[in-house]
């Protein structure tokens, strides 16, 4: 139930009664200046030409029609053709009652209040890291973006499948197997030449020791498949263990080798050739990308005969399209932007609709301390592991910081700020608001105030700070709606920071628990209960803890 949707339904009815069915429709906007109201209508400006009237005349007539309704304490026409709406305390109280239901229990999510209509089938594919090394900090941003978005879709009622595309085919897996075999032979004291492009991270030495302990010394002459299988299994266990620390799990793991075993990759290539969309040149196969608006013709098959990532990716997306999702979300690093564009172009050229496919392209992460880039890895490979970062700052901070910038913006992860227990740290600031609220309710219980009485009380909006807090509470629906439309949860984090700030202002101006004013105390506790419920539900939904004590 979104406040804006409720208002739009009523205002649309008023407009139709007064002006008939006008093509412009009713849009509700949020004024930048609070003095211009809580919401505004731009209908007079949009419909002036169609109605053949001056915008201010329409605005004056519409404002007059809305005055006196209990939803609004004030309605005013404003130049050059707006209607500014100020919500009444009566309406605010009615809406807060809806959010307050069950707030005493506090452990159930309030997102059901904002249940989506219609309910969609959504696939979110994220992380999908190659099983050739531990997850890096960049993978961590991918993981948190995808998981939080999936959680939000699910929280409002959509049917969500979290999917991990496991790149366990191709040349990279062969090199991984060769690298593990070399490490295994080294442990046996056998002479070995390490692969020129092999993976040199110490994690492969750990895996080789694991193979030696579990499988014994009799595999020195085993074929490469044995070592590929061992490496893949161990790497996947490492990846899953890291993701478990962030409370991230998947509903479906899709192995790339299935696409080769089923003939899907070969089938895509043959269909492109059959339709004249692919051509051979210098021993390689190219897609006619320039004919489809791409800046170049991308390579499909290398001169070695090995397919590039594009072919299996196209086959993979065809598989996902055949599963009939309403929305398919791909979370990809900035280095995949060209490839993703090319995959969509190939799909379209083959006659597949790509309207349901949305890509989230995220930029890279830099860890900084005192404004300088930091290398944390103690391993010899040149990357920073996600496990190292989790060891340093913990999962709550990781999740919050990874989500604190828009995906397409480069993220500087400030390690010093991440460890501060002060209002400068946005994670601490929001969590502290929840802990302070929990403390208020403990104090209230100690003074004999019962949750049953709080539930029956009317919300106290007598203080101006309470009214500001109430309006911030009720803007949550708009925030959720925008996050889902934009496929970005940063708006929710900004909202939580602003809600915590509004609460802290309220807390400094109002004595919530006052034994000399039991009726007022119950009304103030009811308002605080809604804030606490929102903080708990939103933080929990994002995979971040909501502590009762700090």
Brief sketch in words of this structure:
By secondary structure, this protein is α/β, with parallel strands linked by helices.
Q: How would you describe the overall organization of this protein?
A:
By secondary structure, the chain is α/β, with parallel strands linked by helices. It has four domains: 85 residues, 2-Layer Sandwich (Gyrase A, domain 2); 144 residues, Isoleucyl-tRNA Synthetase, Domain 1, CATH 1.10.730.10; 160 residues, Rossmann fold, CATH 3.40.50.620; 75 residues, no CATH class. Helices cover 50% and strands 13% of the residues. Strand 13 and strand 14 form a beta hairpin. Helix 20 packs antiparallel against helix 21. It starts with a helix and ends in a 9-residue tail after the last helix. About 1% of the residues have low confidence.
CATH architecture descriptor name of the largest domain? 3-Layer(aba) Sandwich
Helical segment count? 21
Biggest sheet character: 5 strands, parallel
Beta-strand proportion = 5-15%
Classified by CATH, the class of the largest domain is Alpha Beta
Shape descriptor reads globular
Kindly report the CATH topology of the largest domain: Rossmann fold
Give the full name of the CATH homologous superfamily of the largest domain: HUPs
> What class, by secondary structure content?
alpha/beta
The strand line-up of the biggest sheet is 7-6-5-11-12
- Estimate nothing, just give the exact number of structural domains: 4
Could you tell me the radius of gyration in angstroms? 29 Å
Termini, distance in Å? 33 Å
Q: How many beta strands in the DSSP annotation?
A: 15
Arithmetic mean of pLDDT = 92
Helix content: 40-55%
